[in-house]
């Protein structure tokens, strides 16, 4: 029983920390261009092969 008194607030705190990190990443624009990084790999590879 004593363990639950300690573990429940820790779990809630970690959950709120993760939620805050998610909203921070949304505000900073981390999820704006999901396809750009995938296509950028191919574009750089094609430019590097030119003599």
Short description:
The protein is mostly helical.
Overview of this protein structure:
- The chain is mainly alpha-helical.
- It has one domain (2-48).
- Helix content is 76%, strand content 0%.
- It is built from two helices and no strands.
- The protein has helices at 2-27, 36-48.
- It is elongated, with a radius of gyration of 21 Å.
- The mean pLDDT is 84.
SSE topology sketch:
Blueprint: H1 2-27, H2 36-48
Give me some keywords for this one:
51 residues; mainly alpha
CA distance, first residue to last residue: 70 Å
Which series of helices and strands comes N to C?
HH
- What is the number of helices? 2
Overall form: elongated
Number of strands: 0
The helix content, as a percent range, equals over 70%
SS-based class: mainly alpha
Radius of gyration from the alpha-carbon trace, in angstroms: 21 Å
The overall pLDDT, averaged over residues, is: 84
Domain count: the total is 1
Low-confidence stretches: none
Tell me about the largest β-sheet. none
């Amino acid at each position: 029983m004593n363990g639950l008194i300690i573990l429940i607030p820790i779990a809630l705190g970690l959950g709120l920390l993760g939620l805050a990190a998610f909203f921070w990443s949304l505000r900073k624009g981390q999820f704006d261009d999901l396809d750009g990084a995938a296509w950028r790999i191919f574009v750089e590879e094609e430019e590097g092969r030119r003599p």
